[in-house]
Amino acid sequence: MPSLFPIEQLTLTPEETQTSQVKFGRSFIFDFDKGDFVLSPTGKVVETDGAEAYRQWAHKTLLTPRYRHPIYSRNYGQEFEDLLRRNLTRAWNESEIKRMVTEALMVDPRTASVGDFTFDWQEDTVYFTCKVTTAQGEQVQVSGQVQGVR
After folding, report:
1. Quick one: how far is CA 79 from the chain centroid?
2. Which Pfam family would be a valid example here (predicted)?
3. What is the dihedral of CA 51, 59, 139, 16, to 10 degrees?
4. Which of 48, 52, 70, 80 is most buried, taking the most CB atoms under 10 A from its CB?
5. How far is Cα 126 from Cα 149, in angstroms, rounded to an integer?
């Protein structure tokens, strides 16, 4: 019997999935502390590409709560707010932050791995950093914070 859906399944060989297939593109540099784009002396928005463009995306992803803004897909953002309601120990919070950060960043094909987490607790805020390896093999350091946890 002929198929109702005569579209062939796309399967990639390992050679086709290598890093040369992943596009990094360009991005405008955003100063997250000031809340505005970085401007050149001539008043134009400064662009970047490669690992810096990826770092900008990763930082924005970790600042955006998942499911809050309908403009973003359900795969975009983090779920740190869930930690506030769960009243976990520090060890459990660190474990959950590792999981949530890894899940948030691994949705992008430019991300090869996430690891080497460090945590700094100051009262009810935990600051974290991690190293991300891009699909091109570059190391990018990403940091963030979660407030209101114990």
Report:
1. 12
2. Sheath_initiator
3. -60
4. 80
5. 7
Better pLDDT: 73 or 102 = 102
| Domains, the chain | 23-147 (3.10.450.40)
CA distance readout (Å), 77 to 18, 70, 89: 26, 12, 23
Taken in order 96, 51, 35, 121, is the CA torsion positive or negative?
positive
Token code pair at residue 128: 């974290």
Full DSSP string of 39-90: B-TTSPBPEEEHHHHHHHHHHHHHHSBTTT-TTS-TTSSB-THHHHHH---H
Is 117 in contact with 148 (CB distance < 8 Å)?
no
